[in-house]
Amino acid sequence: MSPSIVSAVYLLAGILFILGIKGLTKPKTAVRGNQLSALGMLIAVVVTLLDSSIVDFSFIIAGVLIGGIVGATMALKIQMTSMPQMVALLNGFGGGASLTIALAEYFSKVGADPSSFAQLVTPIAVESSAFGAGPEGTVALISIGLTVLIGAVTLTGSFVAFAKLQELMKKSYGLPGGPIGNALFLAAALVAVVLLVTNPGNSLAMLSIVALALLLGLFLVMPIGGADMPVVIALLNSYSGIAAALAGFILGNTVLIVAGSLVGTSGLILTQIMCVAMNRSLANVLFGKMAAGGETVDADEIYAGKVTSAQPDEIAMMLEVAKRVVIVPGYGMAMAQAQHAVRELADAMESRGTEVEYGIHPVAGRMPGHMNVLLAEAEVPYDKLVEMDRINPTFEDTDVVIIIGANDVTNPMARESEGSPIYGMPILNVDKAKNVVVIKRSLSPGFAGLPNPLFAMDHCLMVYGDGKKAVIDMTTALNQS
Amino acid sequence: MEILILLLALFVLSLFLGVELITKVPPTLHTPLMSGTNAVSGITLVGALLAAGSGGSPLLVNLLGFVAVTLATINVVGGYLVTNRMLAMFKRK
Each residue of A52-74: pLDDT tens digit? Predict the structure, then answer.
């Protein structure tokens, strides 16, 4: 296969990836877009397999079989509520793939064939010209070092994110010194990159980059709390793309560069959207704690004697006469697996002529678009899922808002209480509706650790208990009336 | 050196294209976007295949290539399948 044909096929694959993402701009064209993207992947792989430098297919067949079975099993078995965990793992595997490719390229160029660890760390006399003539060799070495660095951070960082999302790791651990500790680790890893570039045969420097970056990934993500995971997942998604693009520079491979940079920008844009939706900077999410409130807010003072609770059948009576209802889901809906029950309640209301929409905050759930996927699974039409900016003006004409498993994103302190840690964060203005119903286990605070004055408002009713059961009880009561 | 400049140009233009494309994806599809781009980043499979199957390379290189092939294939197969599964739910009405 001549190199120019290979390049032409890579170009075609790149075009198909672009068309694939373009398809994702509309729900109607999205399935087709995804298929085009997969087709691009297929032709890129097939043309690569025809490369004459591939002589032994045993490792390839083994890897594709294992990877294919694991990937397909994960994709078909995973529950929609666990999608953030799945994406976290995929980010990690992407980083791991870039890491191992860069290492393979390095050891192939230095011609190391170690039979023991001692041999592996013994420096080898290699010039940077082994990696390419003149500046190209230097750039290839820098790319290798950075791919290893970013790939390894993505690998371990994603596994910590997975452990947090799966609630295997509930506490937060960090380096003493927090961001300074992390900065020292990063600096040490970068020094190792420089050592590698100046002396390419220094395999100890290479292994140091790997070790430091793997640890850095752990320490970067371990201190970050569950509700900040949307940002972390989006950022790691971006890293996995950047690592792939850098690997493209190592191999001089155009399709890796195009695909990697598309993924890199996608992750970065999602990261930015998430940060804006929380009114926090990226640095604050990664390194900061939620700022301590200027004035201490006493939960008892806010709630004392003002919180009204209600039973599901009382809520059903209210819903009977409502003309317009907005449902606001949060992570609690995912935890309670209540999405199908919520859809059934909406069906019951719609059959009585009530208009029902869903108000989706950008950071509701544990990853961008998490609530949308859950509700789509429950067969809620996507045009009923309304984003924050469009739903907010409609709350004044809404008779009942039902909040299920959301807290901080509805807290009016974000709008009114200057000096509050969440002040300035855009929220769903549910308190403007005529009635608010909050389904929640207790009055416990959300991730921000703040009481929610909404719960104490006169037009707000609390329904305590399991989200799914409460919603089913409401539906039953509504259908009987 | 000229090739390097060309690759850099490709990289920069792809970044701009990425920004134009991704900002048009509606929030409803952000989760499938993430899993779909995960699948795309599995394009590293191309590099992994070359490392895993290259003749005359040290065993260490082939082994690293094998790990890379496995991980990248999980991304490709898992990413496209799970994205397809999610998007099929959005399509029906």
Answer: 888 888 999 999 999 999 999 99
Distance CA A246, CA A260 (A): 8
Complex confidence, ipTM: 0.95
Residues of A in contact with B57 (CB under 8 A): 108
Q: Which residue of the set A228, A408, A431, A473 is catalytic?
A: A408
Mean pLDDT, residues A158-177 taken together: 81
Chain B neighbors of A49, CB-CB under 8 A: 49
- Contact by Cβ (8 Å): A169, A229: no
Tell whether A89 and A55 lie within a shared domain. no
Partners of residue A54 on adjacent β-strands: B54
Spell out which residues of chain A touch residue B18, defining contact as CB-CB under 8 Å. 261-266, 269
Look up residue B84 and give its two tokens: 């397809």
Task: For residue A455, give the CATH number of its domain.
Answer: 3.40.50.1220
How many domains does chain A divide into? 3
A58 within domain boundaries: yes
CA of A327: how far to CAs of A37, A43, A412, A433, in Å? Answer: 35, 45, 17, 12
Render pLDDT for A183-192 as a digit per residue (tens, 0 to 9).
888 999 999 9
**Which of A119, A126, A265, A375 has the most B C-beta neighbours within 10 Å, making it the best mutation to test the interface with B?**
A265
Mark whether A315 and A278 lie in a shared domain: no
Q: A258 and A223 share a domain?
A: yes
| Cβ <8 Å between A237 and B37 | yes
> Which A residues 78-117 touch B at CB under 8 Å?
78, 80, 83, 86-87, 90-91, 93-94, 96-98, 100-101, 103-105, 107-108, 111-114
Q: Which domain range does residue A42 map to? A: 1-77
What global pTM score does this model have?
Answer: 0.90
- Written as one string, the DSSP assignment of B31-63 is HHHHHHHHHHHGGGHHHHHHHHHBTTS-HHHHH
Query: Higher pLDDT residue, A77 or A174?
Result: A77
